[in-house]
Design a protein that fits this description.
single chain, Rossmann fold, 52% helix, binds guanosine-5'-diphosphate, binds magnesium ion
């Protein structure tokens, strides 16, 4: 079984994409399951085959640890990652090709907790793949674009898994914006020009240095536009994952 982790900032569209991608796989006749690993969510737009909330209840965590909702979110995520023996077998016993994994709303609860890397190892380091969602509200300015690329790079660095960078909610962007951002993601000079187009601020100087660093470590990657709302870009996600696992293309495993 391959484990596809959908990761991105809060509200970037992870849960929606898990649902839309599952629907696309269903239509292709490809078997998959959905695993909800967000213990703190009160709503998910799909029916989860395995739901971490069956093991971890946010209300109980608040009570047991005398915490408010924010603290409880952190403890709940850690409990999930530490007590893998409880719920991982429920995932592993499923006979399917792909487990689509919805991760906590706030990405730092997953990407920046030490325990999450254990979770990925427990499920199988060799079978994991990251889909990193860039939110267009952040990524549509040149500086925001570089910031988001760095977030994706840090995420990959933390997990040491192959990664696909997708531009989420592409339906919210105009053709022109889509084309512009596509160019930035394919051509570092286009991004460089966009960063320096107006007057050089200290922020754009930093962005340029970050951009060079991203290029040097091989984290400068094409962004794949996807809309869960319209169901577009799903085939691109699938092809990239297939190519990685079956075609042997190196998308950056073992970067760290
Ligand atoms: N227009 C548009 N809105 C989207 C899309 N995907 C998600 N959203 C909206 O973005 C918000 C956050 O989505 P959600 O999937 O809950 O994000 P998560 O916090 O990353 O799981 C919701 O209001 C969704 O309806 C999309 O492809 N297009
Ligand atoms: Mg969500």
């Amino acid at each position: 079984m391959r484990y596809i982790y959908f990761i991105g900032t809060a509200g970037s569209g992870k849960s929606s994409m898990v649902q839309a991608y599952k629907e696309w796989l269903d239509n292709q006749g490809i078997d998959s399951i959905i695993v909800n690993l967000d213990p703190g969510t009160d709503f998910i737009p799909y029916e989860a085959d395995v739901d971490i909330r069956d093991w971890i209840n946010l209300g109980e965590v608040m009570k047991d640890y005398s915490l408010g909702p924010n603290g409880a979110q952190i403890v709940a995520s850690d409990l999930m990652a530490v007590n893998t023996k409880e719920w991982v077998p429920a995932v592993k016993k499923m006979e399917t090709n792909f487990a689509l994994i919805d991760t906590p709303g706030q990405m730092e609860l997953f990407a920046f907790r030490q325990s999450s890397t254990n979770l990925v190892e427990e499920l199988g380091q060799e079978d994991g793949f990251l889909v990193f969602l860039s939110d267009p509200t952040l990524a549509r300015t040149p500086n925001g674009f570089v910031s988001d690329m760095m977030l994706a790079a840090i995420t990959q660095f933390r997990f040491s898994l192959p990664i696909l960078n997708v531009l989420s909610k592409a339906d919210l962007l105009t053709e022109e914006q889509l084309e512009g951002m596509g160019n930035w993601s394919r051509d570092p000079y286009a991004l460089y020009n966009a960063l320096t187009e107006r007057e050089m601020s200290s922020q754009s100087v930093m962005s340029i240095e970050f951009l060079k660093a991203m290029e040097n470590v091989g984290m400068y990657k094409e962004l794949t536009p996807v809309s869960s709302e319209q169901g577009t870009g799903m085939e691109d996600i699938y092809n990239t994952i297939q190519q990685y696992f079956e075609g042997g293309e190196d998308l950056g495993r073992n970067v760290s």
